Amino acid sequence: MAKTASLTLDSGNVELPVLVGTEGNRAIDITKLYRDTGYITLDDGFANTGATKSHITYINGEAGTLRYRGYRVEEIAERCDFTETSYLLIYGELPTGEQLEEFRRNIRMHTLLHEGMKLIFAGFPPEAHPMAILGSVVGALAIYSPDSLDPNNPEQVEVAIHRILAKMPTIAAFSYKQSIGQPFVYPQNHLSYCQNFLNMMFAVPSERYQVDPDFVVAMNALLVLHADHGQNCSTSTVRMVGSSTVNLFSSISAGIYALWGALHGGANEACVKMLEQIQEDGGNLGKYIDRAKDPNDPFRLMGFGHRVYKNYDPRAKVVKHICHQLFERHALKDPVFQLAQELEEVALKDPYFIERKLYPNIDFYSGIIYRMMGIPNNMFTVLFALGRLPGWIAHWREMHTDSGGSRIHRPRQLYVGPSERKFVPLIKR
Ligand code: SDX
Prior knowledge:
- With 429 residues, the protein is mainly alpha-helical.
- 50% of the residues lie in helices and 7% in strands.
- The protein is built from 18 helices and 6 strands.
- A 3-stranded antiparallel sheet has the order 1-2-3, with no helix packed on it. A 3-stranded antiparallel sheet has the order 4-5-6.
- The longest helix has 27 residues, at 154-180.
- The mean pLDDT is 95.
- S-citryldethia Coenzyme A binds at residues 45, 229, 232, 263-265, 267, 292, 295, 300-308, 356, 358, 361-363.
């Protein structure tokens, strides 16, 4: 295998090092390209550009495989809960029993919000989107946690990690309660992570509430499946913002807003809205498949296609299986789930989708499970953010701990604007 790549430029030949990853993936190292040649590279959407080396998650888009720190995501989703998965992603190893109990204890100690933060929620109108609330209140953690802002202080970083893992579910549940005008339900630290979240979401102070154990199992698996996915848009945002050495809370807040976009994590909400629209339109799948294929129609099949997966998203397979399990156990039927399966079947036989290797991604079925749990559409991406949190933390931490800390991210550009021109005073314009 070649150890260098040759580039022929007008100034002569340049040899660039070729780096080889764990699974044989290769990268041409252009770190010194501009210094040595004055050339930069250009790559719309960074589809061909690696931003960093990483030890965290491996994705094989052609084969449709995904591994967290070397473990297959299907196995982690089946054998680990979300806090154990978070530990693995953040610290790189499966925890011992003692390490896991200490990690969970540290998280439990921080589940409450500062009482002053409740006033932030009170200022939001009822129709405020929970993702806008989540991003704002997570950002405000930087105000209430002045003793854990320094990314270069390992003790402060540890406290910040425990705080944000502990408080995001509380903030998410409070934003839901705020949107439906119900009183906040405080975290109960005798409950497990997902039990606690579901209790804060659906309990009310005036009634006893028992969290459905099936929903706890499903919620753990869903959060695990969302926990990390390499250099996706929101994780790259967390790395970009974190590279300026701003604190963890502010970096995560930026990632939340990137995730909200319908092309990214917002697709789970957009997918269920799309399925409900098709259902209201008489279930006319052909009409919407044709619209998705029409280059002049901006309509896209939400939950379909992926920048990296050119095969079935392995996470979508597990989510679909959880859908079937839950509906069978609860003897429930959801016409939207039925419609989603029919839509998948029609699309996967259509040459347009086959040629472009467009398959269901994690967002295609996840919203159907949330909906079945009684979680409203506008909370689906909040659940995605809760799941992706350990991945964001792991990448932010890796950036600061790898090879003595990273450089500030500052891409270059190819300028194609006007060349220098004389200024024209206003009276002459
Ligand atoms: C997530 O990066 C990650 O890892 C993200 C994620 C994670 O875990 O972080 O996996 C989570 O964000 C999943 C993706 C959720 N988004 C959606 O489901 C939105 C719908 N999907 C598309 O918008 C699209 O597939 C993207 C955004 C996901 C990927 O876009 P790309 O890689 O830029 O691909 P593209 O838009 O250039 O599409 C290539 C072709 C185009 O057609 P042609 O120009 O070749 O004729 O495929 C077509 C596109 O029009 N196409 C679709 C389509 N997705 C791509 N056509 C119809 N419906 C779709 N969903």
